[in-house]
Design goal:
9 helices; alpha/beta; 14 strands
């Protein structure tokens, strides 16, 4: 348990996991004033502007949404597409997602999506998808446990017609499920992307890099990637972490190193003056 771990006299705890366990770690650490770094998950937005390279954006969205069967905190979970290209993007992503092969992958290099970690995890995804459908969302692809494969396989799933306040949009869903929703202008896109307790990573797709940089600077969280899906957790030189429900602190890179350093200041006075002007009297 976190309590036993902290009894060992650690100087610092870096924890990656769910918010509930992160809070437990923080409560235990508070008793000994042990500093903590928490990376607690995400609900990453993927914003596609109408001037984006659509083919590349779709291919990246498919990978980012369903890699590791969607069981990654940095996975693509909320896709927002500008209205003019919404249908083209959705139809293209649906075609590519339908073509993904599920399986164990030990001897088949064509397998792209494996099983979920457990039956409990799969059931949680089933419940959230079912609730979304009851609330008016619609399945574009997938939406069910795979009918033929033995194991914890859930089909890669795309939902449309979801509402921003639905659990499937707001809560972390650790499985192969993604929503696609339309937006009008970039201000609406930012409003939708920011409307979430999680703030880990984000993607912005546009051919106008300066425009993308301006939008990225207005997003919360640790990382915003232009024209790619967040993958910088694999780059040792870049900082990694989030804010809000995604935790706090950084690992990796220069900032991650400083998180592990206890600052110690040594100051000396030359003794040039007999006294300083602020000394008494």
């Amino acid at each position: 348990s976190s309590e036993l771990l902290l009894q060992s006299g650690l100087d610092r705890v870096i924890f990656t996991g769910c918010g509930e366990m992160g809070r437990e770690v923080m409560r235990s650490a508070a008793q000994r004033l042990t500093p903590v770094t928490l990376e607690l998950g995400g609900k990453d937005p993927f914003i596609v502007l109408q001037d984006a390279d659509l083919e590349r954006a779709v291919r990246c969205a498919v990978w980012g949404s369903f890699v590791n069967a969607g069981q990654t905190c940095a996975g693509v979970k909320r896709i927002y597409v500008q209205k003019d290209i919404f249908d083209r993007f959705s139809q293209s992503m649906a075609r590519q997602t339908s073509a993904l092969k599920l399986g164990w992958g030990w001897e088949d290099p064509d397998v792209s999506v494996g099983p979920m970690i457990s039956e409990v995890a799969l059931k949680e995804v089933e419940v959230m998808v079912s609730n979304a459908l009851q609330g008016g969302a619609r399945v574009l692809v997938g939406g069910r446990r795979h009918p033929n494969l033995q194991g914890h396989f859930f089909e890669p799933t795309i939902l449309v017609d979801a509402w921003q306040d639905m659990d499937v949009v707001q809560k972390e869903l650790f499985g192969p499920v993604v929503t696609i929703m339309p937006f009008g202008d970039e201000d609406e896109a930012l409003e939708l992307a920011r409307d979430c307790r999680f703030a880990l990573n984000a993607s912005i797709w546009t051919r106008d890099i300066e425009r993308g940089r301006r939008l990225a600077e207005r997003l919360p969280g640790g990382t915003a990637v232009l024209n790619n899906s967040p993958y910088t957790f694999g780059l040792g030189e870049t900082p990694w972490g989030g804010s809000g429900e995604s935790g706090f602190g950084r690992t990796h890179g220069h900032l991650g190193l400083l998180d592990l350093v206890e600052m110690h200041h040594v100051h000396w006075d030359s003794g040039r003056y007999a006294q300083d002007i602020w000394w008494s009297p």
